[in-house]
Amino acid sequence: MTKSFEEFEVYKKGIQLAKLIFTLMNSKPFEREFGFKDQIKRAIVSITNNIAEGSEYNNNKQLIRYLKISKGSCAEVRSMLILSRELQFCNQLEIQKSYDLSIEISQNLSNFIKYLNTKIDV
Q1: What integer pLDDT is reported at residue 81 of this predicted model?
Q2: Cα Dmax for the chain
Q3: Has residue 54 got a pLDDT over 90?
Q4: CB 37 within 8 A of CB 25
Q5: Under 8 Å between Cβ of 3 and 91
Q6: Which residues form a coiled coil (predicted)?
Q7: pTM surpassing 0.70?
Q8: How many other CB atoms are there within 10 angstroms of residue 110's CB atom?
Q9: Domains of the chain: total
Q10: Cα–Cα distance between 12 and 28 in angstroms, integer?
Q11: Containing H/E element for 6?
């Protein structure tokens, strides 16, 4: 029996990151930035949703495909955090924890992909 996506540490970290991002997006400097908030929220939700969706196929090749999409969404979140700082919606201190967690999640996804690649029958 395979693990359920809810048990994956990388999924749990994705939920933590989503909470941080949603909290940040509720701050005053973002209140009128509807398009920006929508885009970063879509990207953050994509991280966990792709982990969940890929795991349901019970097929390592499919899971790898979805983990790669999740990894791309993680980079998008990181890019938008940088942009939010550069546009002076927030400062480095306000995004640092989210930024660091997004890097950690990206590395975890890479390691998960490498592991799954060793389990694929050639």
Answers
A1: 98
A2: 53
A3: yes
A4: yes
A5: no
A6: none
A7: yes
A8: 13
A9: 1
A10: 27
A11: none
Domain boundaries, position 99: 5-118
Distance of CA 2 to the CA centre of its chain: 22
Predicted pLDDT at 3:
81
CB burial of 50-67 (b: ≥16 within 10 Å; e: otherwise) equals bbbbbbeeeebeebbbbb
Joined together, the tokens standing for residue 11 give 């999924």
Structure token digits, residue 88: 């002076």
Mean pLDDT, residues 58-63 taken together = 92
Residue type at position 103: I
Amino acid at position 50, single letter: N
Radius of gyration of the chain (CA): 15
- Rounded to whole angstroms, the Cα distance separating 2 from 112 reads 14
CATH (domain of 39): 1.20.1440.60
